[in-house]
């Protein structure tokens, strides 16, 4: 839906969240972030005194709204300095009116954190012995695993809004009672009678709901969180509460991620080029470049039935347009196969186990560049690749910075130059790893191969890497017989009690600044202390690490060292267990700047594809007439219809029309057409006079009609009636 107009206030330091506020300059202050949502345009206004956490969370929210609720078709603009963004400010003034007076200071973030933590409460609604129970289970910060699919939950945002989350396996009685109790909260807690109660269905959560949680994993998503979830039609996030004996008794937590099949199916690969799908030469299947996006269609048989998986692989350096086009083409490919495929978004470096397996050990990820034929960028003379895996199922090769500090005694590395390709074998690597590296070496280089053992490197080897340098070479990484897989656990007390949750297939991104993380490397136990973790978590982590050793079924040595590592001061003995460790990851402002730069140059409105008509804006009116002041109830209406009285019922779409200037076009093209916003999702009483409610789509302009339905009116009315009705329902015109 694009007929939306709202203002979101992003506030906090540790517990940053957004709330919807009045669409007015009176809601603004100098110390926070505000997100103006106009449907196809999202403008983030950063106060001069706001903190980096608010900027990052605001931009993450804007991107989530764009990608998950607008199909990637909305445009995002950022105002860091009003003087540098005159065109974006013009849009804000058109919507909000001229600003009168100076902006005030913000409430201190520390106080806001306390209020948010106290005010945001999650309740569990479930049946027990024929009785309905409503029980408070957590305050901020909330985690997704608190939501039980077989029950319902009420999330009270301190009177700003109340959400009713309905689990897909919950009963009708639970759903009915949850909504009734949520409405009862309004009076019981003394909230305003206009407090909105919004129903949220399991699997279809809005961005505003998800942002109240510390982290959120979408179905089939592999980005950033490192949790285990299946590649079935209904993805399920499996997370386990802390029980030290259970951690050892559940082998699936420490083993590979589940496989959809044995990876013997058919593989097809396309590269996104000029926003379209371009077939990739089958001889290069498995080679992915960080500057590109790819679609991979995997077809396999199960019980005699054909199944499909569409992997959307997104390069770290791909443009926003390419990422959006990748998602759009995935939808088109999905339609081609009858909407049957499972879609999996794969972020570079976070490839799931099955993705590795379908390329039979030949998955090679280049840090940058492109595989396009017209690529004019010269390839680096020296490249370094890290090979991890022991067979065709689990081997992945990634390009790492070509310097000595990237080496790791536990793995095999390929160093390619103009003269030779070195196979560098660390002391801790196995024979199987060396054999897989030989296969990969024949793909990445046609030069002569030279095997080099750690400690016996020729001078030319170090010269190619720019000289010797310290790397992860501690003998603790060497396994005499069985290679032990390190295990990472998140330690947190967000539910009021201390729990540990394992992170499978972990990487540096899984280290959460708000928590303590436990890394078990067998000979050592590392406790990684996040900058904003609390004292209770730190103390409990130490005692739990001791209990973890006591209950380990292998009879661990209780004298195993427990090492505390502070965020930003990690030694090589810790970072060596992570692939491609970035020592600058937690530099102040980098994450926000990276997200901002990924949007491209959006400072000028001419470079944002804004549908001003859809946003209820009219630039000519804005230039010649002052916009209605924010909060004004005066509306300019055309003689084509008279507005009906406003309803007092709160809409879950959050479409606010009272506070915004309404610029409604009269009849266009001489055929009685109305703007889409006065027709979509409108009741009979809200429609303009003379509009047949059974044929609302007929009153759209030809351009709007084609934009919404993707076809002309003549083509639409030639379709079967049932199909017409389905599409009208889908677009809010039924």
Automatic annotation (TrEMBL):
Cellular location(s): Cytoplasm, Cytoskeleton
Entry superkingdom: Eukaryota
Keyword Repressor: no
Compositionally biased spans, kind Low complexity: 647-659
PROSITE patterns: HP
Molecular function terms from GO: actin filament binding; phosphatidylinositol-4,5-bisphosphate binding
Annotated GO biological process: actin filament severing; actin polymerization or depolymerization; barbed-end actin filament capping
Region Disordered, residue ranges: 616-661
Keyword entries, A-Z: Actin capping, Actin-binding, Calcium, Cytoplasm, Cytoskeleton, Repeat
Nucleotidyltransferase found in the keyword field: no
Domain HP: 668-734
This protein's GO CC annotations: actin cytoskeleton; cytoplasm
Annotated signal sequence range: none
Residue spans crossing the bilayer: none
InterPro entries: ADF-H/Gelsolin-like_dom_sf, Gelsolin-like_dom, Gelsolin-like_dom_sf, Villin/Gelsolin, Villin_headpiece, Villin_headpiece_dom_sf
One Pfam match: Gelsolin
Family note: Belongs to the villin/gelsolin family.
Protein name: Villin like
Annotated source species: Chrysemys picta bellii
